[in-house]
Q: What sequence folds into this?
């Protein structure tokens, strides 16, 4: 960063630098493009996944849904985990309109008319897998209509809503 | 009462930050130094006011004022004292308040310095830091206020607000929910403040950059002025990232340390741009933008992430602030474009200047990969109406080769000269360390490593390490010969000559060691799982784990703890015991599975208690990971921090100069 004047490089050298730079930038662009093409996953709601039907079978996709607590089945011997998720909207604004993520998850779980999806996962039962948690599963839809998840991510927003919890009480005067 | 003190001082601080911006601007316009001084004192008092607000919140948390919504959310009477204090940054409201406090503290320190020589910069430094602070203070006051209390309205509705609504009666809960147990870990206590400090400290060099551009200073004086701030910011950001990785490894129980989660990437990006060499106005602005963007992404709920506690509705204000900041910076860059040009020409492809540029190109490449990956779902949704995401394999494939390239440059750079170096000069300098690195590579091969990617990584890391040690050794030897010192004296004194240079070398060694750990766990991790009856065993990579017992009891901290005991033997000899646990917290009805880790320099054995048979505890299910070399990731991280500390430490020479000024 010194302000001392340097002699300008000869034109031949300049071209060498420009070529070098272009090669590196091209390599980076190639890396990004090829990695993107090979590693994209559709992030879908259950409705969207099932709406597309057989076309989605076997494809690597990401699905978000509300965990229905009563359906969780876990076999510690084989580490097979089964549960059902209910459709929740993907749109943030829609979720806000329903009163936040916690309310949207609750509404999805108690509404029997929502589309459901059965998920199978192999591994230890995650600590956050509870009723009305948001599950984000990555995997593929099998021909039997079951979703085979390779990755299971859970969010429990209930703690962060503004509503007052039940154990709060007014003191007697 | 205490809530009123806390909120009141925040409100006054907010007004004062606005005042300081106005006074500084007016002072510049009317060339009235008194106004600038007034602004400076306002900035200093803001720090005391925010300190008061933070103190008020801490008192509320320690004394269990559960009528305050934030206290209710993060405090539980069963939590130990240190967690009650550190819960200050355990939730959204508190952490933004804490951010403000750190920011005001940094501004306070900057105000303390002697401004005689750079008087022209002062008002603009005030404007930039205080505009940033005003924004965050505005968030804590209007959007995520930590001093909201619970009230019951006359109609029975329950609301939260700072002041008592008309006719409302306060609600006093008996106890709070308490900090998410996943966050009750030593690393998690230091991780957020370290990251925040890193973020906040980057604002200072940014403020100087903007100040120097606006006031039309032609030289790069400000770079020298803020070099230590930049290094310190980088230090804290590195520490924060490392602690986050360590926490993920030690607590989350999935056997890994980094999941390319958007929140992790958001913290990685400013670190990357801060790593780039030779700070220029552009890089500093980029880093500042990434800091704000990172806070925005993690706090807006725009991205799906494992960081469930980082959620909220702050998207719109952040977006507006970021857009305005970007427009301002872009305009300023264009306006001062002519002053920024012409920093020396490149003379040789292998000179140190070219290597630095190449280095920056690669870092920018990784940055683009990260940004692309994080924003891809959002853009794809805008354009196609369909959310398409990219997972960890995307980052690994795209950024992995770039990281290897960086490591290679790190190996070459100490051997290149400023100005001119050629293949010949470089070859003459590199053949000894290159030979040493090749020997290490052959050893790795003999030990049974066959994957070409792993060999490449190990080779490059070995080269970087060997070159650094070789160059250091050469300097020590020269000093020993020329001064006739004892070799140990030379070993000790050589780095003192140029702390920045040798600090940089230590950072390089740290990186190489970390690379070793990353290769070990990412490429050679093995895993198995089994349900074991008592005294039954499971094998993995030469280790035998035998399930002995499992005990379940209630702890004094309001949780139910299940702990298994496993005997670990290697090649038939007993080497230790492991105690994987699961802790169920009654108050928030959530369990936390803590893996048990046996860590050696060679490998880690990582055991998770997946399940057990109730009551009889006759059998239990375990998931076991074998993670080779991962300890080197943490050791390398420590070395990197040490190197940064050394580089940031004031040099002898500077201290001597300061002493002369004083006397």
A:
């Amino acid at each position: 960063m010194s302000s001392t004047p340097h002699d300008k490089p000869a034109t031949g050298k300049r071209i060498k630098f420009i070529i070098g730079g272009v090669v590196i930038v091209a390599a980076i662009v190639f890396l990004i493009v090829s990695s993107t093409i090979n590693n994209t996953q559709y992030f879908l709601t259950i409705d969207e996944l099932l709406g597309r039907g057989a076309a989605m079978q076997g494809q690597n996709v990401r699905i978000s849904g509300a965990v229905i607590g009563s359906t969780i089945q876990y076999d510690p011997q084989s580490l097979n985990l089964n549960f059902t998720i209910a459709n929740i909207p993907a749109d943030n604004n829609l979720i806000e309109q329903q009163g936040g993520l916690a309310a949207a998850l609750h509404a999805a779980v108690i509404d029997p008319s929502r589309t459901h999806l059965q998920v199978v996962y192999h591994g230890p039962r995650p600590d956050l897998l509870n009723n009305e948690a948001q599950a984000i599963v990555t995997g593929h839809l099998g021909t039997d209509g079951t979703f085979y998840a390779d990755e299971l991510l859970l969010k429990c927003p209930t703690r962060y809503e503004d509503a007052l919890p039940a154990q709060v009480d007014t003191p007697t005067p | 009462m205490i809530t009123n003190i806390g909120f009141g001082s925040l409100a006054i601080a907010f007004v004062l930050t606005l005042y300081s911006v106005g006074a500084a601007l007016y002072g510049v316009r009317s060339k009235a130094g008194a106004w600038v001084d007034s602004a400076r004192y306002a900035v200093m008092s803001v720090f005391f006011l925010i300190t008061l607000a933070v103190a008020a919140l801490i008192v509320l948390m320690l004394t269990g004022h559960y009528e305050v919504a934030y206290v209710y959310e993060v405090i539980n009477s069963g939590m130990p004292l240190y967690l009650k204090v550190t819960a200050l940054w355990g939730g959204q409201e508190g952490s933004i308040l804490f951010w403000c406090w750190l920011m005001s503290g940094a501004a306070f320190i900057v105000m303390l310095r002697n401004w005689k020589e750079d008087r022209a910069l002062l008002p603009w430094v005030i404007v930039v830091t205080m505009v940033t602070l005003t924004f965050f203070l505005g968030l804590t006051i209007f959007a995520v206020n930590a001093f909201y209390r619970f009230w019951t309205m006359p109609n029975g509705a329950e609301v939260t607000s700072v002041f008592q609504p008309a006719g409302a009666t306060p609600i006093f809960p008996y106890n709070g929910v308490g900090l998410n147990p996943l966050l009750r870990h030593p690393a998690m206590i230091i991780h957020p403040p370290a990251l925040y400090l890193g973020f906040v400290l980057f604002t200072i060099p940014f403020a100087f950059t903007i100040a120097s551009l606006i006031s039309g200073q032609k030289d790069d004086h400000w770079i020298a002025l803020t070099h230590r701030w930049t290094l310190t910011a980088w230090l804290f950001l590195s520490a924060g990232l490392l602690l986050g990785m360590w926490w993920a490894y030690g607590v989350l129980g999935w056997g890994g340390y980094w999941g390319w989660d958007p929140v992790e990437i958001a913290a990685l990006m400013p670190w990357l741009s801060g790593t780039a060499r030779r700070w220029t106005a552009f890089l500093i602005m980029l880093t500042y933008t990434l800091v704000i963007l990172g806070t925005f992404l993690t706090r807006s709920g725009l991205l799906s992430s494992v960081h469930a506690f980082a959620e909220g509705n702050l998207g719109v204000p952040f977006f507006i602030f970021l857009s305005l900041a970007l427009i301002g910076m872009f305009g300023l860059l264009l306006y001062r474009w002519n002053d920024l040009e012409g920093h020396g020409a490149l003379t040789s492809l292998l000179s140190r200047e070219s290597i630095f540029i190449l280095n920056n190109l690669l870092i920018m490449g990784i940055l683009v990969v990260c940004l692309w990956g994080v924003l891809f779902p959002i853009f794809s949704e805008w354009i196609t109406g369909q959310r398409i995401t990219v997972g960890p394999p995307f980052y690994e494939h795209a950024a992995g080769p770039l990281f290897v390239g960086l490591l290679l440059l790190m190996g070459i750079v100490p051997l290149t000269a400023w100005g001119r170096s050629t293949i010949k000069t470089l070859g003459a300098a590199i053949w000894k360390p290159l030979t040493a690195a090749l020997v290490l590579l052959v050893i790795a091969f003999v030990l049974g490593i066959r994957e070409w990617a792993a060999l490449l990584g190990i080779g490059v890391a070995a080269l970087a390490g060997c070159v650094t040690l070789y160059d250091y050794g050469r300097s020590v030897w020269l000093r020993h010969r020329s001064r006739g010192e004892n070799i140990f004296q030379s070993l000790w004194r050589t780095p003192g000559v140029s702390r920045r240079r040798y600090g940089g070398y230590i950072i390089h060694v740290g990186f190489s060691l970390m690379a070793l750990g990353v290769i070990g766990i990412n490429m050679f991790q093995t895993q198995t799982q089994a349900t074991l009856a008592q005294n039954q065993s499971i094998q993995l990579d030469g280790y035998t784990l035998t399930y002995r017992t499992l005990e379940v009891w209630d702890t004094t901290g309001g949780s139910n703890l299940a702990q298994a005991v496993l005997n670990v033997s290697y090649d038939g000899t007993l080497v230790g015991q492991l105690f994987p646990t699961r802790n169920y917290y009654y108050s928030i009805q959530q369990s936390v599975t803590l893996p048990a880790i046996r860590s050696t320099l060679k490998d880690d054995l990582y055991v998770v208690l997946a399940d057990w048979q109730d009551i009889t505890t006759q059998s239990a299910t375990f998931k076991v990971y074998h993670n080779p070399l991962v300890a080197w990731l943490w050791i390398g991280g420590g070395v990197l921090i040490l190197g940064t500390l050394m580089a940031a430490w004031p040099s002898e020479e500077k201290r001597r100069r300061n002493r002369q000024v004083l006397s």
